Amino acid sequence: EVQLVESGGGLVQVGGSLRLSCATSGFTFDGSVIGWFRQAPGKEREGVSCVSSKDGSTYYTDSVKGRFTFSRDNAKNTVYLQMDSLKPEDTAVYYCAVGFLRYGSTCPPSTVYAMDAWGKGTLVIVSS
Asked: Quick one: which of 38, 42, 78, 31 has its CA closest to 61?
């Protein structure tokens, strides 16, 4: 069974940092796209960052470039999102998701809902 469990969210002041973790099980990173997504109150879910095992490339949405860093620990089956210089507009529930290349997943995905499995999310609040 594919599982993803996010952690590391919380309350942080503007300009601060947080590191989100996503512990995965039931699949290997080979043959997959792993991504971080977020959904702010009243807004659509959006892609933040992803990595595809097809070519190893990393994608960042424009609003987080230079501030967020995606990484992964293959030995721990865990991916991370280091978030620096946080802004109030980064406030959202952050989700980790996986899509499988054999099902046509891409990074970035054609639509966020094309991912195959999701975690339950972790809340990040950036306070001014």
From this structure: 38
Tens of each residue's pLDDT in the chain, 128 residues: 999 999 999 999 999 999 999 999 999 999 999 999 999 999 999 999 999 999 888 999 999 999 999 999 999 999 999 999 999 999 999 999 999 999 989 999 988 889 999 999 999 999 98
Among candidate residues 93, 94, 108, 119, the one with its CA nearest the CA of residue 23 = 119
Structural tokens at position 31: 């043959």
- Using only C-alpha atoms, what is the Rg of the chain? 14
How many Cα atoms within 13 Å fall on the side-chain side of residue 77? 11
